[in-house]
Structures are given as C-alpha cells and as structure tokens.
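Fill in residues.
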C-alpha cells in the first residue's frame, strides 16, 4: 500500500507541475506582462485565471487534478500507516504472550513482555504488511535473553539497549536498570553481572 500511495503522490506532483508550467506558458502567450505577473505576484495567477478563463481553463484543471491526486495519495499513506501501527502492536503483544506461555510451559526462563516491547521498538524492526510480527522482530525477541551481557563494555550495552531507566552507584559498583534486565559493573567499564527481572 505504501508503494501505491507514493506512486500516486509522485504522479500527482508531476501532473500538477505540468499544469503549472502550462499555465505560465499560456500567461506569457497572452502577454509578457501577464507571464511576469503570474510568476512573481501572489494573486496574479488568480486574476489571470478569471480574466482569461478560456486560455487558463485546461492548465488550471490539470493543476487541480494533480493536487487532488497528491491529497488522495497522502490520505492512502496515512490510512495505511494508521492501520498498521495498532494492528501490528496488538499482534506483536499476542505473539509475545504466546512465546511467554511456551517458555513457562517448558520450564525455561520467563520473558518480560514490557522489556521485549521496548527493546523491539529500539531495534526498529518494522511490522509485516499484515500487522503480524516480522521474522526480524521475532528473532530480536528470542535473542534478548540469549545475549551474554557479562564482560560486554558499557558503551556497547548503551549502543544496543539505549540509556538505562535508572542508574545507581553504591560502594564503587554501578547498577543499570533496563526493562526486565539489571546489569552490574564493578569497575564502571564492563558488565560484571546480569540478572533478568523474572529470574
């Protein structure tokens, strides 16, 4: 849907530009003064349209058609984007809950849904066209708990997860709190301990 909307917008812009150029050419055909006025004075085009309707009618209607096409294409793009966001998030939450149920049935570690949502948004994985989570999103969600954060330099952690929700320093040890994940650094340079919120 996004490609079609883009094509309609581009085609509408092209049609409008051709209509505008044709309009200016017709103004110059009537008089050089009309042409200059249409190019440089704000309301001269409107006066030219009214006073020379026969010469300006078709270029004006072509401009109008281009404008309608651009507006229609923008409405299509907005509608497609508005539909994909809520549906995509709802489908992602449903899929996350299914993953959580599978993990809990298998006796594996539980997943923190809020942390997974935040990390998936930060990863920038777009939803698929039908609103269901894409393979990239699911791969990111499965890989979150597979990452061994211990030994990872803190700048790399920040690059992957963003800034922590909270940071506490006590007795030379720094604790970083991310949604569903706590990281500890004894030297302030690398992660020395990790703990998932559900552990």
């Amino acid at each position: 849907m996004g490609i079609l909307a883009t094509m309609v917008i581009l085609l509408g812009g092209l049609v409008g530009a051709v209509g505008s150029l044709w309009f200016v050419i017709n103004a110059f055909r009537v008089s050089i003064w009309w042409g200059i006025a249409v190019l440089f004075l704000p309301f001269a085009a409107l006066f030219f349209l009214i006073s020379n309707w026969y010469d300006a009618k078709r270029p004006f209607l072509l401009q109008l058609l281009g404008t309608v096409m651009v507006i229609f294409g923008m409405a299509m793009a907005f509608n497609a984007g508005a539909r994909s966001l809520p549906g995509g998030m709802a489908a992602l939450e449903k899929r996350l809950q299914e993953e959580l149920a599978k993990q809990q049935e298998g006796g594996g570690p539980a997943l923190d849904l809020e942390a997974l949502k935040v990390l998936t948004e930060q990863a920038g994985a777009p939803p698929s066209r039908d609103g269901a989570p894409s393979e990239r999103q699911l791969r990111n969600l499965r890989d979150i708990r597979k990452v061994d954060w211990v030994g990872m330099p803190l700048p790399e952690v920040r690059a992957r997860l963003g800034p922590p929700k909270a940071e506490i320093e006590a007795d030379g040890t720094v604790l970083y709190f991310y949604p569903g994940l706590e990281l500890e650094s004894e030297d302030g340079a690398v992660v020395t301990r990790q703990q998932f919120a559900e552990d």
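The mean pLDDT is 76.
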